[in-house]
């Protein structure tokens, strides 16, 4: 499904023994062993206190320059703001760990949104709907839906945007602290943006594919397949912070997930089960925001198995094909417009 790799293409993350995050990979000769190891690795950042000590004090941008690890645009802007604020030369107070601060903020934001939704917004929406129509029925349902869109959706998008920035801060801080070398800036900026755009589209299409699989007429099979899809997607989300900073292309990232699907299924299973406990998309998103940082931290400590004796399953084949079709159609459209 993927084109043959050229001489300049990057090795699979789990094949490259020089990469710091994948040294000393264990070997798994069975699907169950890899699945079990994935589950254990997903909690690796919680099992020992030494892991958290290794993640502390990650906010210094000078450490980025010293270690050769590029910092994000957001970090550069923050550094410039500090320089222009006139605090140069003053003795800075010791800062708390950026990771700990972002984790606490993420938990407070998402847990607060869940409580706000159930204790304030939903009761208020139901009360307003009843006051407007004084009756239960189709009209009341329409008003409730409109109020949900008006009040809940802005809160949903706000939490999603904040989570994106905070997750990036956590991943960047871990990269700085663990001194994981990156190759992302050896690529052209346009190539990086193209890969990021393609990755976003493929992941969105795969999310739709997950919902379609959940609509299969066989309840047990559809539920199992939906959980498997969501687990693989969450694993891809978590490992992408590391892989993209190492310059691993989208096709290679997907190939790793599909070749080692038992491991990555186990790695994302816990979060998939937690988010599946509710039918509300908003509540599920908040639960994701609370626990996903743990997966990000665990992905930097994980040791995916180096032995792949399982048959690869092309879970992403449909989503990738649709993405390629859409991109080709856009290219043809632009060619017609500008030719």
From TrEMBL:
InterPro entries: CysZ/EI24 (IPR059112)
UniProt name for this protein: Etoposide-induced protein 2.4
Bilayer topology: Multi-pass membrane protein
Region Disordered, residue ranges: 1-24
TM stretches of this protein: 103-125, 145-168, 189-212, 224-243, 264-297, 309-327
Start-end of Basic and acidic residues biased regions: 8-18
Cellular location(s): Membrane
Similarity comment: family membership: Belongs to the EI24 family.
Keywords: Membrane, Transmembrane, Transmembrane helix
Pfam families the UniProt entry points to: EI24
Superkingdom of the source species: Eukaryota
GO CC, any one term: membrane
PANTHER family the UniProt entry points to: ETOPOSIDE-INDUCED PROTEIN 2.4 HOMOLOG, P53 INDUCED PROTEIN
GO terms for biological process, alphabetical: macroautophagy
